[in-house]
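Slack export, channel: ligand-projects

TW: morning all. Re-posting the request from yesterday since it got buried. We need the structure predicted with the small molecule present, not the apo form. The ligand is LQ5KYKQO; the SMILES is in the block with the sequence. No rush, but it would help planning for next week.
GE: picking it up
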Amino acid sequence: MTSSFPFSPTRNYGLPSCMVSNHASDGCSFGQPSFPKNKKSRELNIVSVATDLPMVVQSPLWKEVAQERKLAAWTSIQQERWEGELCVNGEIPQWLNGTYLRNGPGLWDIGDYNFRHLFDGYATLVGLHFQNGHLMMGHRQIESDAYKAARKSNKLCYREFSEVPKHDNFLAYIGDLANLFSGASLTDNANTGVVQLGDGRVVCLTETIKGSIVIDPSNLDTLGKFEYSDSLGGLVHSAHPIVTQSEFLTLLPDLLNPGYLVARMEPGTNERKVIGRVDCRGGPSPGWVHSFPVTEHYVIVPEMPLRYCAQNLLRAEPTPLYKFEWHPESKAFMHVMCKASGKLVASVEVPLFVTFHFINAYEETDEDGRVIGVVADCCEHNADTTILDNLRLQNLRSWSGEDVLPDARVGRFKIPFDGSSNGELVEALNPDEHGRGMDMCSINPAYLGKKYRYAYACGAQRPCNFPNTLTKIDLEKKKAKNWYDEGAVPSEPFFVARPGATKEDDGVVISMISDKNGEGYALILDASTFEEIARAKFPYGLPYGLHGCWVPKC
Ligand SMILES: CC(=O)/C=C/C=C(C)/C=C/C1=C(C)CCCC1(C)C
Ligand SMILES: CC(/C=C/C=O)=C\C=C\C=O
Ligand SMILES: [Fe+2]
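GE: finished. pasting the full token output, ligand included:
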């Protein structure tokens, strides 16, 4: 599949000349930033105080506007879509040909209703298209049913991560409850991640199964729902499937009979086939599985004591743990399933933990090559659930300089295969190496499931209220190298390998930065030195995004 934003300077009405230039690095001052008006684009016209104001206006609202612009990461996107070439400062490697897609919840306001949590926003997809040292950027909203209905009726119509539509009367409330159980009222707002399947299709995902949406990476168009053709049912799945050229592995929590289905889908099909099932050892419901790790031969099923909560699902107003509940008494477990047979080969109790993201896992062998256990690493929040409520927008927007980001670390699970009842959870390196912030990780995908040395993630330079550095973790030397730009919020550092590379860190790391002035830029670091090699300013700051994928040019 080729991926290229259709580029023609005439498409970019009103853009600074350098942005419609075919030449990179040729004088990149945009002057006073403005929202460029692409004739094809529709102004959203539904958000924030800044929307209706020309950006150079001197008005009593100016300070407010400036303050709003300083927080581009947490401010709703102003335009439905945009595309154009960016000026590049520095040099993008000639080998970097393809598209980095990043998905995230970029629109948090609908009508006069303002969402409260980071995870609620309607999905904004951003594409960075690299070609022969040039960089095109485009963004656009994903046309989920939830987004389209909200735009049409100017109100929330589906249940989002923390928001529930208001009911006009009791009957409507009862109808909504029925729709919750059938899944009809759940959101399909695919705002969490984006993956390219082995067959080339590109799918945006969230935690509701219905929120799997196929897009066209060349122009970011929404192509339609990804319909699973099997009859596995269920309403939710892990937001982070494991996707390789040969398979798509997913976990489906079973909320009725607490457990997890492990399923596999082959490229070119829409049919998930069950590999096996894990029964929960704690209760009353399965633990939240935002992500899970795999090794070459095993799928690791985490059972976190932060569990789905039926009561909280029914609530109209969110609790600090949203749809979940913390059950320390139910304990924490890690289960290991053989991918080929579906049999459980280990199931151990582990210390309590809280994680969104597993980083990687691998098998440990003895001198005869027999597997004696697995190691699984994650971004672990010190068994403290407060991070979830810290991601409320009000919290993110109103930082007053105190150090309020809870500590996190690279949590390393050691799961023995000798029948032990317990596994270990240790720190893979001293968390001070990365400022005790740790989330939004990536690795070299060639090392998925294998012994690896490097991870890239967001760390912290304190004081802060959100991870504000990019960090390269060396798990062998137990050291980190950090990138920091004062006041900036960087998104997930995404590793792309140089074609033909033999070293694990031979490649680049791509991130999108919201800077302290309310502006934003794409940043390209050399993954080996972790030094900046290029940056390209966006026409305006973009909202924070979550996860991305690389679509190589073929
Ligand atoms: C953005 C992110 O990381 C997580 C998004 C999670 C979502 C949208 C979860 C939605 C859910 C519902 C709408 C009801 C059922 C439970 C749950 C999966 C939390
Ligand atoms: C952004 C985030 C956590 C930051 C904590 O330090 C988690 C995102 C989770 C969803 O993808
Ligand atoms: Fe995630």
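GE: first-pass observations. The helical segments are 62-70, 145-153, 170-182, 310-314, 386-390, 393-397. The longest strand covers residues 355-365.
TW: perfect, thank you
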